[in-house]
């Protein structure tokens, strides 16, 4: 084959075929496809990580509120020292999260037999305690009439460490109702020199 004939054939192969020529050129297809789907794959990857962090926090909040209610329901009388121990237990149960960054409340709800559920006492940290004597609504079948129940509540403001998917701060909360184990109604006593804020960090 002469050099002239070879160059002529190469020119025909390299000739621009317009838009239809894209159909024949398959070089770099994989790279183009990867460039198109890579951002979506990265977003899904970080989204799964963030959702797993959120679910982990939700499990900690649920476990802590359940345990606080259960520990309180085992007592006959709750003292200031008991409340301090409750918060100390919450700090352990919330690990690796800082319990002092959350909000907690333990309350005793009583029905005297008239079908009205009222607050007998309430202790809280980083949130307002329920007013003693105030009427509250509870799910049907929780409190016998007459009878009482312990209500444990935990809230935690979760903020994603990445912020790619869950950009806004979310409040994770849970509430548990448990009936007293040993008595029909758990009483609450305070130290004579106490300020009523024993449920929280101790200095």
Task: Provide the fold topology.
Blueprint: H1 3-14, H2 21-24, H3 29-73, E1 77-78, H4 80-93, E2 102-111, E3 117-125, E4 147-158, E5 170-178, E6 187-188
Parallel strand pairs: 1-6
Antiparallel strand pairs: 2-3, 2-4, 4-5
Helix pairs in contact: 3-4
3D architecture notes:
By secondary structure, this protein is an alpha+beta fold. The protein has one domain (29-187). Helices cover 37% and strands 22% of the residues. It contains 4 helices and 6 strands; from the N terminus they run αααβαβββββ. It has helices at residues 3-14, 21-24, 29-73, 80-93; strands spanning 77-78, 102-111, 117-125, 147-158, 170-178, 187-188. The strands form 2 sheets. A 4-stranded antiparallel β-sheet has the order 3-2-4-5, covered by helices on one side. Strands 1-6 form a two-stranded parallel ribbon. Strand 2 and strand 3 (117-125) form a beta hairpin. Helix 3 packs antiparallel against helix 4 (80-93). The radius of gyration is 32 Å and the shape is elongated.
């Amino acid at each position: 084959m002469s050099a002239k004939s070879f160059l002529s054939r190469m020119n025909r192969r390299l000739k621009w075929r317009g838009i239809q020529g894209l159909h024949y050129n398959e070089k770099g297809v994989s790279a183009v496809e990867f460039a198109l789907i890579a951002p979506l794959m990265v977003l899904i990857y970080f989204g799964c990580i963030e959702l797993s962090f959120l679910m982990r926090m939700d499990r900690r909040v649920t476990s802590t509120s359940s345990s606080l209610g259960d520990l309180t329901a085992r007592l006959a009388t709750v003292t200031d020292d008991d409340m301090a121990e409750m918060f100390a237990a919450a700090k352990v149960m919330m690990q690796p999260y800082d319990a002092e960054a959350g909000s907690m409340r333990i309350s005793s709800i009583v029905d005297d037999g008239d079908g009205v559920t009222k607050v007998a006492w309430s202790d809280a940290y980083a949130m307002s305690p329920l007013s003693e004597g105030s009427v509250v609504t509870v799910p049907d079948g929780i409190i016998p009439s007459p009878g009482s129940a312990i209500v444990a509540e935990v809230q935690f403001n979760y903020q994603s460490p990445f912020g790619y998917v869950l950009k806004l701060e979310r409040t994770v909360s849970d509430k548990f109702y448990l009936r007293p184990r040993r008595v029909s109604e758990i009483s609450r006593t305070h130290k004579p020199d106490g300020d009523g804020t024993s449920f929280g960090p101790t200095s």
